[in-house]
Amino acid sequence: MSASLDTRVADLHLHTLFSDGTYSPEELVAQAKRQELRALALTDHDTVEGCVPTAQACLSADIEFIAGTELTAEQDGHEIHILGYSIDLLNSRFLTEIGKFQAVRQNRIREMVQRLNDINVPLQVDTVFALANCRAPGRPHVARALVQAGLVGTLDEAFERFLKKNRPAWVPKFKISAADAIDLIHKSGGVAVMAHPGLNRSDEVIPAMVEAGLDGIECFHSKHSAATAQHYLQIAERFHLLVTGGSDCHGLSKGRPLIGSVRLPYRHVEKLKARAAERKAEAARQFPA
Ligand code: AMP
Ligand code: ZN
Ligand code: FE
Ligand code: FE
Fold first, then answer.
1. By C-alpha distance, which of 238, 285, 277 is closest to 88?
2. What's the rounded Cα separation, in Å, for the pair 191 and 169?
3. What pLDDT does 173 receive?
4. How far are the Cα atoms of 80, 271, 280 from residue 187, in angstroms, in the given order?
């Protein structure tokens, strides 16, 4: 098939209710089908729990599935999100490490609720955990619980009054270094990609991440303008990085569903898969079974 006639597209950045999205795997895949996506990647925060059910739904819908996750990392004081693609879902090192990130998230929820209680906002921690119903809860779940309990009117109000950085219930989150996140993904046979660089505006950290083995950069994202995408395409070329893209759809939790708003040409998926095969072979050599 010649490239110009290839209309296949993918969305490689999606969330479900296994982290802070609102769609179940089945709902997400139904939306992907409506958007005529050829391939999708699930990238829930600090978890891969949703990957098996999403893979099953994709199989029924004849959509290619790529397992993924989105790790929160830090590089030179900047919060950097790193996407890990095609990781081995049964890799015990990987599962142990993300289990730690999940425990950090759960403890942070307890601390945020304690801080709310300290300022006489009577939210119960069990309410938040019941609503989140996943291993990787985050601030959006606290915000939703505050809305449902009638303690604030909107999610935005919850963030503005309580949850934003330096507001009374904000609790900093432990983050691994970007280099460690990249290394963990590689050791799990995966491909490491810097998420939405245009949101962080921290281009100065890119060379160090490339040095640490970064494979790709998310040039196309729902919050990137055409100029921003172009800027990162140039950076991808300069550093010989793979190009990826995704909507970062969280379902209905952030206004209209974003799935389908970024349509990554399939040739980039093919390059990602080729790199994943190399990373898998390397991990197998490094850690023979
Ligand atoms: P956490 O990982 O627990 O720190 O939560 C981060 C999540 O909260 C991300 O999905 C953000 O998009 C979301 N978030 C951060 N700030 C706001 C805000 N002001 N309003 C709504 N959502 C937000
Ligand atoms: Zn999120
Ligand atoms: Fe992110
Ligand atoms: Fe995301």
1. 277
2. 35
3. 86
4. 19, 19, 8
Residue nearest to atom 21 of ligand 1 (CA): 156
* Closest-CA residue to 14 (of 70, 89, 61): 70
pLDDT digits (tens, 9 = 90+) for 78-104: 999 999 999 999 999 999 999 999 999
Kindly state the tokens that stand for 46. Answer: 């600090």
Half-sphere exposure at residue 141, Cβ-oriented, CA atoms within 13 angstroms? 29
For residue 46, which of 82, 92, 22, 88 has the smallest C-alpha distance? 82
Q: Which residues surround the ion ligand 4 when the cut-off is CB under 5 Å? A: 70, 248
How far is Cα of residue 156 from the mean position of the Cα atoms in its chain?
A: 21
- What pLDDT was estimated at residue 1? 53
CA dihedral 251, 255, 260, 261 (to 10 degrees): -140
Give alpha helix (H) positions in 66-138: 92-118, 125-132
Looking from the CA of residue 173, the nearest atom of ligand 1 is: 4
E strand segments, the chain:
9-14, 39-42, 64-75, 78-85, 176-177, 191-194, 216-221, 242-246, 264-265
**Partners of residue 177 on adjacent β-strands:** 74
Mutate to test the pocket of ligand 1, among 69, 139, 171 (most ligand atoms within 8 A of CB): 139
Determine which residue's CA is closest to atom 5 belonging to ligand 1. 139
User: Which ligand is in closest contact with the Cα of 68?
Assistant: 4
Residue among 14, 15, 19, 20 to mutate when testing ligand 1 (max atoms within 8 A of CB):
20
Beta bridge partners of 41: 66
Query: Measured at the alpha carbon of residue 222, what is the angle toward residues 176 and 277, in degrees to the nearest 5?
Result: 55
Distance CA(274)–CA(153), nearest Å, equals 48
